[in-house]
Design brief:
By secondary structure, the protein is mostly helical. It has 8 helices and no strands.
Amino acid sequence: MYTNVVNNQDQALCHLFFHCCLEDNQFTEAEMDNLSGKLVTLGLQPKVHIKDELISYRSYKPSITSENEKAYLAWLIQLIRPVNELALYSYCVELCISDPTLDAREASFLSLLAEILDIRPDIAMIIEKLMAQRKTVELQKVF
């Protein structure tokens, strides 16, 4: 189970980011590049081995169901101990929308994550809209 695999802040952040990308059960090359870039920017690259952590994540991911996802996310957040919860949420939103579609599972995941991070729904919606517009601007080069 994940409690035996994830046991520090860096791993927890890495696994949370994997969960953001793999919530739709697809992990594209672009998503991997985006995720890797974030881990490097946040200084996690030398501390965690991304490929090993991905293997670990995939080993327990089938055990995460809609019934126990909240406990899983709460476990990760407890290990991460975020002091900038809005920033963490925005990174997760960005990873979720890094592929062309935001499906119902990803939307449900983001809602659950916002709840765990104690982010009000109206604030979460603003962050989601902001990140979606930034993605649109990056792709279309139009403000």
